[in-house]
Amino acid sequence: MSAMVAQYLSFLLPLASVVSAQTCTSLTIPVSINTQVPHLTVAEPVNQAALTGFFTSFATPSVDFTSAIINGTHQVKQTYKIAGKLCTPKNVKANGILEFATHGIAFDHSYWEVGGANSKYNFAESAVASGHSIFYYDRLGNGASSKPDGIQEVQSGVQIEITHQLVQYIRQGKLGHKFGKIIGVGHSFGSILSGAITAKYPKDFDDVVLTGFATGNVVGLYIGTGSFGATIASESIPTLKLPPSYVVPGTPSAYQFGFLNYPFYDPAVAADQFKIRGTTTLGEFATLVAPIGVSPSFTGRVLVVTGSADSFFCAGNCHQTVNGTNLLDLVTELYPVASNFSSFLVENAGHGLTLHFSAPSTYDVIQKWVGS
């Protein structure tokens, strides 16, 4: 834990139990992109066995499976419908702070509002209670957003361009408000995308909060992928009429392994989130880590917040160090000119931070940092 965050903790007060008056608006935003992405030599899996074979190859550390299935690039020039939600304090101030939140794999926008209204797990309400506005959305291929080809379109590169276009849409005042600061807040794959924005479009975010993220241990990604229990989404959830390149965690135990740290969560909350779990695609997994890299021109602040038992980025142990530096603080190597770098290790939490008992205190840290 950095000295700055430790200082915050010494005088933090819990957020009010009664949520501040807020106004929330559901939106559908047309987003046009034009970009080049990898052409993947992967076919739609013909059945569950074929899908499991894909993930077995992907999760084998000694095989560079991703490179083997990329054959050049192709253009994606499309307009997609992106579903999102804007929540603001009742009397939102001009030039205030907006948190721009991007969810990770196996979730949709509901990751930021776990438990619904007046729930202690509701991150969006914690933002508004702190006087900030928040925009959060269903990534392409999730929730109420468009669901195009799950191999050649729903990839990291496309998601990055959509995120950039959404930020520009907001900066142009098209949500009906002008914000003085836009803070990127990501979780897991959403943190990878947020980090890619700071690298490619360093003026999009003023500051960035990367949750469920660390560097220095690739073993966790193999473990997390192998234990994901990927199941063809339409077979696991028959109401989803999607091609077999769309997948979900197939069982509660697989969901627990990847996202939860027993016994530090409410089983009922976890069960509810499993029922509404989000989809991911073969295209996203194949391009999952490609965007991780240095942001040489991002001069804003950076905060990394990750659970001590994070499976995907720490292989279950975020206390480990590399040359004396813990995995969260290694992220500073990606931000050589950031104006400030802080980290906070959430004890007893797994990868899905918003599902754990520690969620309220975690939100306190983030909101205090955002507003400072």
From TrEMBL:
Pfam families, per the entry: Abhydrolase_6 (PF12697)
AB hydrolase-1 domain boundaries: 103-360
Signal peptide: 1-21
Domain of life, source organism: Eukaryota
Keywords: Signal
Keyword Signal: yes
Protein name per the record: AB hydrolase-1 domain-containing protein
Organism: Sistotremastrum suecicum HHB10207 ss-3
